[in-house]
Specification:
Blueprint (H helix, E strand, L loop, with lengths): L1 H14 L10 E4 L11 E8 L6 H10 L3 E2 L5 H13 L6 E7 L1 H12 L20 E2 L8 H4 L10 E6 L2 E7 L2 E5 L12 E5 L14 H4 L6 E6 L3
Antiparallel strand pairs: 1-2, 2-10, 3-10, 4-5, 4-8, 6-7, 8-9
Bound molecules: 2-acetamido-2-deoxy-beta-D-glucopyranose (4 copies).
The site of one 2-acetamido-2-deoxy-beta-D-glucopyranose has 2 residues, from loops.
Protein name: Protein CBR-CLEC-136
Organism: Caenorhabditis briggsae
Keywords: Signal
């Protein structure tokens, strides 16, 4: 009897390890691999706020929630983002983890200057999309799932500005976004990754050089991730 009781007392400790995420986050079990730093459990949350096309604001919202920018790692996590977006009537894309590395950004500027196409899917080495074209705040997410959801190989949005009296200045959309929406009566929820300029849409007066940012799509939510409690 005592042995049986002990058995029951130890079972929850071994098998039922209660993994909890803070309010506002949803728990996901993950397959630990070298690519997600052997993460077994992860909490994802979507947080609304204004002007999240400005990368520092998006990053700060996650920091305020003791989290970092993050990404869905598989279809189940992407479907959660779709369900949340539909429930909260968010049709805009979400700010998501991933920003072009400074070294690869420099190579994009060089290609722009030389009027060459830079295709991160085709390029060999460090700046290939599947290599280190993007750097991530979160080391607990394997970005392969989200990167496979990019429709146009990045960089895919550009702006160049110069006048007679100013230098030529290059801009391109360096930050990743992710969008998924439930489609009624459709079991397939695809999910799309896209790019946005990391600078926010201008607040107030817009000078000509920054007009490109005025026309970028609004982002009003961000995907954050953290370890469970
Ligand atoms: C991976 O996880 C280990 C243990 O949790 C941690 O010490 C290490 O800093 C993590 N690595 C990175 C790159 O975050
Ligand atoms: C973040 O962590 C701190 C310290 O553990 C805690 O006091 C605070 O309530 C947390 N904030 C949120 C939003 O989870
Ligand atoms: C959802 O958003 C759309 C466009 O932003 C708006 O027209 C509509 O009224 C919203 N619906 C609800 C239920 O909030
Ligand atoms: C359902 O999803 C598939 C795959 O994305 C798409 O081809 C199809 O057009 C969708 N059907 C409807 C009714 O939206």
């Amino acid at each position: 009897m005592v042995a049986l009781l002990l058995l029951f007392l130890t079972i929850p400790a071994v098998f039922g390890k209660d993994v909890k995420c803070p309010e506002g986050f949803q728990h996901f079990k993950r397959t630990p691999t070298a690519k997600n730093n052997h993460t077994k459990n992860w909490c994802l949350g979507i947080f609304p706020a204004d002007r999240l096309d400005e990368r520092d604001r998006a990053r700060s919202i996650c920091a305020n929630n003791n989290a970092t920018l993050s990404l869905p790692e598989n279809q189940k996590e992407s479907d959660f983002i779709a369900a949340f977006s539909t429930k909260h009537n968010i049709s805009e894309t979400h700010a998501a983890d991933g920003q072009t590395s400074p070294r690869c950004a420099a190579r994009v500027y060089k290609a722009m200057k030389e009027n060459r196409v830079f295709n991160s899917l085709a390029i060999k080495g460090e700046c290939n999309l599947k290599n280190k074209y993007y750097l991530f705040d979160d080391s607990n997410t394997d970005p392969a799932f989200a990167l496979a959801k990019i429709v146009d190989p990045p960089p895919n949005q550009f702006s160049t500005f110069w006048t007679m009296v100013t230098p030529k200045v290059y801009h391109f959309a360096e930050c990743l976004t992710f969008n998924a929406q439930l489609i009624p009566k459709n079991a397939t929820i695809p999910g799309y990754a896209g790019t946005s300029y990391c600078v926010g849409r201008p607040v107030g007066k817009v000078d000509q050089e920054h007009e490109f940012a005025e026309h970028q799509p609004e982002i009003k939510s961000v995907i954050c991730g953290r370890h469970p409690l």
